[in-house]
Amino acid sequence: MKKIILTLLMSAMFGFAAIDTGAIAVIERNGSLDAQESVFGSHMFRGNFANVKRHAYNPDYRINIGDVVLLKMWGAFEFEQPLTVDSQGNIFVPKVGTVKLLGVRNGDMVSVITQHVKKIYKDNVFVYADMDAYQNVSIFVTGNVNKPGLYEGLSSDSLIQYLDKAGGINPQYGSFRKITVLRDNKPYANIDLYDFLIDGKMELFAFRSGDVILVDSVGSYISAKGEALRTFRFESKNENMSLKELAKLAGIKPTATNAIVKSYKTDNHLNINYYALSEFENILLHAGDEVEFLPEHLADEIRVSIEGEHDGLHTLIFKKGSTLQDLKEKLVLSRQSNAEAIQIFRKSVAKVQKNLIEAQLKELETLALTTPSVSPEEANTRAQETKAILEFIERAKKIEPKGQITINEKTALKSIILEEGDIINIPARNNIVIVQGEVGVPGAFTYMKEQNIDDYIKLAGGFSGRANKSKILVIKASGKAENYDAGIFSFGKPAIDEGDAILVLPKAEGKNLQFTNLVSQILYHVAIATKVILDI
């Protein structure tokens, strides 16, 4: 029972912490978080349109019972008052009589009223009229929407407003491109919301009570990712869509030059094809295809950054296949440059180091959370150890390896091929030896030729109580690392040179041998990759 409770607590801590109330609202509204986030257009319907009322002038609007007309007359006869269209479709104008407005176009309203006024007042009476309040219309919204029903609004409200009132189009099976407005059970307007989403175009018309908005089912769809501004699942209006049309919908970036198309065939085979930008117009996509846009540029040159002590440029361009020896010949060194200790850092090496550390951290996390306890006392101790190790894992995840390539003394510089993005560091000459980690006073000490590693550790206050004397690293400027065991029977002390770093690792303590060995390995690999001692 205690194990079950502990597991649930851990799940609550690590599994549910990332879900916020906004995400929960999305799930409740649409049933699927992934569908909401991946379908193009689903972000429209979040209540931003439903709560907006606009009284826009529409000359084609037909005046209805209950509408309010603001009438103004001046000249020989002064009058100003809002008049409601009665149940017979009329308004009553004092000293003029009834004026029938039911069904009259909004654009013709002033002229119709003026005609009646002129029958009484031949001259010197002027008329102005405007719609003051519109009678609500009732619109049916049905099909693949989240909340089908009958919704009230203004006749001038847009189709998007009514869809928003109905909870929006269901992103899992509703169509954004096949929406029909039915009037008297006949198609009145066909709407493609992609016109609005992509180009901002929207067909506006006056709704009438009894109109039906019908959202069709989605047909075929195609997914886009990679070098595009909009990485979503896009709906195809017809059975097929060209790769060029998808590129427009997704808004590919100027850097995109190629596309990989994955097609799932009916014979259970996956076809993968590669197309250049010039071929997009002639490539037809099919339902369920997945497209990734790529920035594939062919370059004959690579860029290398130069850091550290030198008097030259900080960026150099080389032909592909150039070596570290070629670079060294172009360097402009200063008197303080240590040309014999050139360091090279590479992103791909840093990624490998990062992956190695993360794999070990995952193994450590699994071990910490699954190791059983045989007694309540041991369970309590295990819980405290688990908490400490999880905190250690979180700190270790933030470590970013440098990706330094170790240059062996016997390695010819002309055998090291440069890569795009390499960073070359030229250390400055110095007579400093750095001692850090589990020592009394970590710091930098002047180099003295006659002193060995033990002497430098004594200068740093000796070992602390948590020092792992069998795991002492000496890291050379070249990146080469040597391990030193300072135990009773230690021998073969590594030579200490100018610019070296001595790292005394902490001791991993615990009753579980597998646990302590794994922590020790992680500490060792972090120190090699970053020259940093990670605390436990």
Defining traits:
536 residues; alpha+beta; Outer membrane lipoprotein wza fold like; wza like fold; Ubiquitin-like (UB roll); five-stranded mixed beta sheet; 12 helices; 27 strands; disordered N terminus
Explain what this protein looks like in three dimensions.
This protein is an alpha+beta fold and 536 residues long. Among the domains are: 16-53 and 137-217, Outer membrane lipoprotein wza fold like; 68-133, 2-Layer Sandwich (wza like fold); 221-294, Ubiquitin-like (UB roll), CATH 3.10.20. Helices cover 26% and strands 28% of the residues. It has twelve helices and 27 strands. The strands form seven sheets. The protein has a five-stranded mixed beta sheet with strand order 7-6-10-8-9, covered by helices on one side. A five-stranded mixed beta sheet has the order 12-11-17-14-15, covered by helices on one side. Strands 19-18-22-20-21 form a five-stranded mixed beta sheet. Strand 8 and strand 9 (186-191) form a beta hairpin. Helix 9 (347-370) runs antiparallel to helix 12 (513-530). The longest helix is centred in the C-terminal third of the chain and has 24 residues, at 347-370. The chain is elongated, with a radius of gyration of 38 Å. The two termini are 30 Å apart. Residues 1-37 have low confidence and may be disordered.
